[in-house]
Specification:
mainly alpha; Rhomboid-like fold; two-stranded antiparallel sheet; 6 helices; 2 strands; 70% helix; globular
């Protein structure tokens, strides 16, 4: 994600407009490639989009552009539902941690969106288990 501080938009417009903008063609191609790799359902994409709204509004005060917050919410949702080795987590954290030092990348938005996606799946799973336990009684 990149920042456009000089654009004058209201906070709720930030997410609606920012997700459709990209800094350059490379930025757009990377987002499209990651989106293609994630193999998601339309329902999960909508949920990830909605989860990324608070991530964008809370973690960054300016206008963040790009689809990265939605992608990170999708990654959080998918990784919460799978078992990953410690080596896999180390690679994931190291690769994404490196972006914290790249100027113009909203690292806080990425982390917040990932956490919200992860928490959503965990809470949904607990809710489903609770409902299932209540029905069995």
């Amino acid at each position: 994600m990149c920042y456009l501080d000089e654009v004058n938009v209201l906070p709720w417009q930030t997410h609606l407009v920012g997700q459709l903008l990209h800094a350059n063609v490379f930025h757009l191609l990377v987002n499209v490639f990651v989106l293609w790799q994630l193999r998601f359902s339309l329902r999960n994409l909508v949920v990830a989009y909605l989860l990324s709204i608070p991530a964008t509004l809370v973690a960054w005060s300016g206008l963040a552009i790009g689809f990265s917050s939605v992608l990170y919410a999708l990654m959080g949702m998918q990784m919460a539902g799978t078992r990953m080795s410690k080596a896999g987590w180390v690679v994931f954290v190291a690769a994404n941690g490196a972006t914290a030092f790249v100027p113009g990348i909203a690292f806080g938005v990425h982390c917040t969106a990932f956490a919200l996606g992860w928490i959503f799946v965990k809470v949904k799973r607990l809710s489903d288990e609770y409902r299932g336990a209540c029905k069995r009684r």
